[in-house]
Specification:
heterodimer; A: 959 residues; mainly alpha; 3 domains; two-stranded antiparallel sheet; 41 helices; 4 strands; 70% helix; elongated; B: mainly alpha; Helix Hairpins; 65% helix; transmembrane (chain B)
């Protein structure tokens, strides 16, 4: 099976469990199992190639310019990890089916699990380090979801957050390291990087890259001093702990160290950092684990300790160390997953994981006892079990390792760590299973169904099989070791044997086991001593650091970001000026290339009006109606300016938009206060004037310099002018750009406009549904109402004008392709025609005559425009490719038919719908607040019989 | 002429900025509108100023104003209408809901604090 499928299967499969939720728990688990099994089988189909020593590759260029390619690689190391991830994943899925209770959302759980599985497989199969980073971050995110799966538990949420913070920070550091590495080599492809050992190690940036990458590995693999997150992640459901902390998540860091081993290892820096971190972690984890009373906490710290062991082995930088590390990864995955699952069984059956409340389970749960004891003895390093073999190799390697020039340091610490390791394994067996049967268990323990014990049992079979017959694992481990070593070293010839003779490693092993038994004998006094000793609590330190960072952020942000919009506006403006000034003072300005054009008296008069209106607005802004009139003048002068400077389309648009904007503002002003009170201090006004003047001067200077110089390169407008008629079939270049050259932009813009209108509609609905409704109903206008709400003159006039305006709109629309006009302008003109009817005869009358809702008009517009674009696909052209032809239908002259006109129709409809929907929403507020509106077109209508009561009364008097 | 247009941009910006820094919604919205004019004209002038040469292709005419900024500004004008409408609606909704048209968060009123101390 292609490598793409192996990686993609879990991701796509993650969609299924959520859907299967209603089909029952077995169906959900079954689907998940099938997906994993398919990926597993797919992986196995590649086994022959891997066994032959070849590397399977699969590659799709994703963003080649960035060096980011979707390239996958399957060699011995990748195969080994993928096998662990998918194989143990299968067992975990079967186990989780029986472990989770009915209250747990199983679909969600398995979706998270598959996402995580996909991300892990992605890491181990990536051939591109950028792609690897993407998957790396995905594991952090999906493990966050898994650890925090029991959202109702505060420990679950805190543990998940801590894991995400620590591994996420490490991931960030690693991104830096990987980028440096890619820069050194000049390629982000792992297969190329792995062949450039000398280049990388000679580079001055080797050390920073190494430290950054190791930060990522150490945080992920819980190495000292980042080990503290792992025990807190134990708040997750046990299947998650068993999966994440035996074979997958925490092994990702180990995997990466193994993957990078050929290029990063072998230097003194690597040796010092990795070996000492591993050694400290190993000893520290083992000592803490012994004194933990929670079964899962004990296993968590033992995992930390074993990860330290593997890290130390990789740190030695020798081929034998690498082989021992690979072997121990395999062994640790088998016995640790089995132990986690056993702990889950005990928790599930006895309803407690506290070792102090357990004991004597040997008789009550014989199957679990057998499984857990074999796995624990293997972890302790007892012969005939697989843990013994790799531990022996570790001690052998430690015996030859000299750190800080002290030959006894590493062997002594390794033995010390092994001693505690053996002690906690013996404690696990002794205090949980041996001893007298108690009568105070929270629940009566008994062996679970096969669904729970079979998965760990299968793993224990492996533990024993490898332990008794090490030669069955030897070829595979050597194959994996060969791909770890790459070209850097030869695979060692040493064979895996149970009996090596009376070598130092054996003595160290004996000391460890005997010492472990002795330690258990003196456990109670040792525990009292441990409890009395002061120890730093990682969680409090972590939380204090987080708290400090949060306080610092608040201190920095709150003065800037205190909820005052005017403050942000002032700060934002000043920052923009400063940045602009910096660019100005450091850049160069060439001499003017254009001469200033002369301005006639009309131009100056227009300028004066614009300036006067703007100044009036600023000076008299407290009178809101007046400032609205003044802004109308500004808009009008801007429109005239557009006419003057050869932009007829712009002028028409600006002019019509001006009309609808003013109507809109008037509708709003109806409710808002008429005046703005004086609130700001003089000082504040001086400050604001200062900001405004600086901003005005800056834009003035910028645009003045800009207009007197030609563009530095030829503008692409030349292309548009040249091809507008040839390619787009229109002589109005602006319109051709809108509907053809930049049609996709326009398409996006009408969608934005439609969304804005819908947003206004939604806000109105919310307002009308809430307490505002009552306020509006009780609202009394602050101005006297006009007696004649729908004046006859206006009604008659707007009716007469309506068809004329519609005709103008239609004309503007049709000619748009060749003369100024088009869908935008026509849409605005038609909106104004309709708005006039609303204004003259009222909301009730007008909306009763409305055939289509405006939402529908917007939707139709966007659809027509979109379908026109899609139409191009049927002719094998890209989206929105236009076509045109000339036809002649007698008695008309020859005219042009263009698909662009259809697109423009969509634009037209969307604009009409959006403008009308916005104005209509505002009027609905107004309607609620005003006196009951009648449905007649005008208040006084001689042809009507039912005159208003008071009018009828006065009429009678007159008669 | 360039001087006139550039100074108009500057004046519109200055007026817009001053109004944007006011404390009530209505002047702020008007200020944003003024800034919109300034920005639109600024973008428009990136095609430089040309009189009497609209970008409508004619036989025998070779000089046209730059059509591209015009097309971009045209959609910008229409979009800015949509955005103004949304902002006005938000401002209006806030005023109707709280009877207050300040743009800034108002400090807690003293009534809440003085309780119990007096």
């Amino acid at each position: 099976m292609s490598l793409f499928f192996i990686v993609a299967l879990p991701f796509f499969g993650a969609l299924l469990p959520g859907l299967m939720n209603s089909a029952g728990r077995s169906a959900t688990a079954g689907v998940t199992f099938t997906v994993s099994l398919a990926a597993f089988v797919g992986l196995l189909t590649n086994l022959p190639t891997v066994l032959a020593g070849d590397v399977v590759m699969a590659r799709v260029d994703w963003m080649p310019l960035l060096g980011l390619n979707f390239s996958l690689m399957l060699d011995g190391l990748g195969f080994f990890f993928a096998l662990l991830i998918l194989g143990i994943g299968l067992l975990i899925i079967a186990y989780a089916r029986h472990y989770l209770s009915r209250d747990d959302n199983m679909g969600q759980f398995f979706t998270y699990l598959l996402l995580f599985q996909g991300a892990m497989v992605g890491i181990v199969l990536s051939d591109n380090i950028l792609l690897l980073l993407v998957f790396w971050e995905l594991t952090s995110l999906s493990s966050f979801l898994l650890i925090g799966y029991w959202k109702h538990l505060p420990e679950g949420r805190q543990g998940a957050r801590m894991a995400l913070t620590v591994t996420g920070m490490g991931g960030l550091a690693m991104i830096g390291g990987m980028l440096i590495l890619g820069q050194i080599v000049g390629s982000y492809d792992l297969s190329i990087i792995l062949q450039n050992r000398d280049l990388i190690q000679a580079d001055p940036l080797y050390l920073p890259a190494l430290i950054l990458i190791l930060l990522g590995c150490f945080t992920k693999s819980a190495q000292f001093p980042f080990h503290f997150w792992l025990p807190h992640a134990m708040a997750a459901p046990t299947p998650v702990s068993a999966y994440l902390h035996s074979a997958t998540m925490v092994k990702a860091g180990i995997f990466l160290m193994a993957r990078m081993w050929p290029v990063l290892s072998g230097t003194p820096e690597w040796f010092m950092i990795v070996t000492s971190a591993g050694l400290i972690t190993m000893v520290l984890g083992a000592v803490i684990a012994l004194f933990k009373h929670d079964l899962k906490a004990l296993l968590a710290f033992s995992t930390v300790s074993h990860l330290g062991l593997i890290t130390m082995l990789l740190g030695t930088g020798t081929a034998f160390g690498a082989m021992a590390a690979v072997f121990h990864i395999l062994n640790h995955a088998t016995f640790k997953a089995a132990l986690f699952m056993s702990a889950g069984i005990i928790d599930h059956e006895a309803h407690t994981r506290d070792i102090r409340r357990l004991g004597g389970l040997r008789k009550l749960m014989p199957v679990t006892f057998a499984i857990a004891s074999l796995a624990a003895l293997s972890m302790a390093g007892i012969p005939l079990l697989n843990g013994f073999l790799s531990k022996e190799m570790m001690l052998e390697e430690a015996h030859h390792t000299v750190l800080f020039g002290v030959p006894w340091l590493v062997p002594a610490l390794a033995t010390f760590g092994s001693l505690f390791s053996a002690a906690y394994c013996f404690r696990l067996i002794g205090h949980v299973f041996l001893g007298p049967v108690r009568d105070d268990y929270p629940a009566k323990p008994h062996d679970p169904g096969a669904g729970l014990w079979l998965p760990p049992a299968l793993l224990v079979v492996l533990v024993v099989a490898i332990g008794v017959a090490p030669f069955i694992a030897e070829p595979f481990v050597k194959l994996v070791t060969a791909s770890v070593l790459g070209d850097a070293a030869e695979v060692p010839h040493a064979h895996f044997k149970i009996w090596h003779g009376l070598v130092p490693a054996l003595f160290m092993s004996v000391i460890a086991v005997a010492g472990g038994l002795l330690m258990l004998a003196v456990f109670n006094p040792a525990l009292r001593f441990w409890d009395a000793a002061p120890r730093p609590e990682a969680k409090t330190i972590f939380e204090a650091i987080v708290e400090m960072a949060a306080t610092l952020a608040q201190k920095l942000i709150l003065p800037l970001h205190n909820g005052a919009f005017s403050r942000y506006a002032a700060i934002g403006s000043i920052v923009i000026f400063a940045a602009g000034y910096h660019a100005w003072s450091t850049g160069t300005v060439g001499a003017p290339t254009r001469t200033m054009q002369a301005a006639g008296p009309v131009t100056i008069a227009g300028w004066l009006m614009l300036v006067a209106a703007t100044a009036g607005m600023v000076l008299m802004h407290r009178n809101r109606l007046l400032s609205l009139i003044l802004i109308g003048i500004v808009g009008l002068m801007v429109s005239i300016g557009f006419v003057f400077f050869s932009a007829p389309d712009l002028a028409m648009t600006q002019f019509t938009v001006e009309v609808v904007t003013i109507i809109l503002m008037l509708l709003a002003l109806n409710f808002l206060p008429n005046t703005t009170p004086i609130e700001s201090s003089v000082l504040r006004r001086v400050r604001d004037t200062g900001v405004a003047l600086v901003g005005g001067l800056a834009t003035f200077g910028l645009s003045y310099h800009y207009m007197l110089r030609d563009a530095v390169s030829t503008p692409i407008s030349e292309f548009h002018l040249a091809n507008s008629y040839k390619g787009g079939g229109g002589t109005n270049v602006v319109n051709v750009i809108l509907v053809d050259f930049r049609g996709f932009d326009t398409y996006g813009e009408i969608i934005v406009l439609g969304i804005a209108a819908l947003l206004i509609f939604a806000l109105t609905e919310t307002l009308l549904g809430g307490p505002v409704r009552a306020r509006l109903l009780n609202w009394t206008p602050d101005q006297a109402r006009a007696g004649d709400m729908h004046p006859m003159m206006m009604v008659v006039l707007t009716r007469v004008i309506m068809p004329v305006v519609l005709m103008v709109g239609f004309y503007i629309f049709l000619r748009g392709h060749n003369e100024p006009g088009g869908g935008f302008i026509a849409g605005l003109i038609v909106s104004i025609a309709v708005v006039m009817q609303y204004m003259a005869s009222g909301f009730g009358w007008a909306s009763a005559r409305l055939k289509y809702p405006y939402h529908g008009v917007i939707g139709a517009g966007v659809l027509i425009a979109g379908l026109t674009g899609i139409g191009a696909w049927f002719f094998g052209k890209p989206f929105l490719t236009s076509d045109f032809t000339y036809v002649r239908i007698p008695p008309f002259e020859k005219f042009e038919l263009a698909t662009a006109a259809l697109f423009d129709l969509g634009v037209f409809l969307a604009v009409v719908g959006a403008v009308m929907l916005s104005l209509e929403s505002f009027s609905r507020l107004a309607r609620l607040a005003s006196a009951p509106d009648n449905d007649h077109p005008m208040d006084i209508d001689p042809s009507r019989d039912d005159l208003p009561a008071e009018l009828a009364a006065s009429g009678k008097e007159a008669v | 002429m360039e001087l006139l247009v550039a100074s108009a941009i500057g004046i519109l910006t200055a007026g817009g900025l001053y109004l944007v820094l006011r404390l009530r919604t209505f002047p702020v919205i008007l200020g944003i509108s003024l800034l919109t004019y300034a920005v639109n004209i600024f973008l428009f002038t990136s095609g430089r100023l040309t009189t009497g040469a609209p970008p409508i292709l004619r036989d025998g005419v070779n000089v046209y104003s730059d059509p591209l900024p015009q097309a971009l500004v045209l959609t910008a004008i229409v979009i800015s209408f949509g955005m103004t409408a949304v902002v006005v609606m938000i401002g209006l909704g806030a005023f109707l809901g709280s009877d207050d048209d300040h743009v800034d968060d108002q400090p807690e009123t003293d009534e809440d604090h003085s309780e119990g101390t007096s």
